[in-house]
Design a protein that fits this description.
With 150 residues, the protein is mostly helical. The protein has helices at 2-30, 35-61, 67-128, 142-149. The chain has a domain at 2-92. It contains four helices and no strands. Helix 1 (2-30) packs antiparallel against helix 2 and helix 1 runs parallel beside helix 3. The longest helix is centred in the middle third of the chain and has 62 residues, at 67-128. It starts with a helix and ends with a helix. The relative contact order is 0.11.
Length: 150
């Protein structure tokens, strides 16, 4: 009975690792990141996964590695991916997009207002001004060189 309890704890650990994986997927789908940031995120994911695994192994199984530990973790990850992952990612991405729209709305309005009523009229007035600047010849004539030497 004790091993069955441990097995279910490792299925739960696999579920948690699946959720952690999806959190990083959600971040990547919601925000454009540089490759370097992606590498850092991958590193953080693996560090956190290692910590979760070590904690679970030492807490539930006294640090003993058994085959059913890894089988339980794999079953937990697979169950999460097959049953919940798609819905969790879609819901979270939509929620983040909604929050981004709500936060960007006032800034977008200010930006559009400034373009329409401030910068565009100024640009139109400046573009209508036709200023003719005198041409400057940068080439020196030979006579100028002779007069400078004397």
């Amino acid at each position: 009975m004790n091993q069955l309890y441990i097995f279910f704890n490792f299925i739960l650990t696999g579920f948690i690792i699946g959720i952690l994986y999806d959190i990083f997927r959600i971040i990547r789908k919601s925000f454009k990141t540089l490759d370097l940031v992606t590498y850092i995120q991958d590193f953080i994911f693996w560090i956190l996964t290692g910590i979760i695994l070590l904690y679970s192994i030492f807490t539930f199984n006294n640090g003993e590695l058994r085959g059913y530990v890894f089988i339980g973790i794999l079953i937990g990850i697979l169950l999460y991916i097959l049953l919940i992952s798609k819905y969790f990612v879609n819901l979270a991405v939509k929620l983040i997009k909604l929050i981004k729209r709500i936060l960007y709305y006032p800034f977008n309005k200010i930006y559009n207002f400034s373009l329409k009523y401030i910068f565009r009229p100024i640009y139109k007035k400046i573009s209508k001004i036709n200023i003719k600047l005198p041409k400057i010849n940068l080439k020196k004539k030979e006579n100028d060189n002779l007069s400078n030497k004397i």
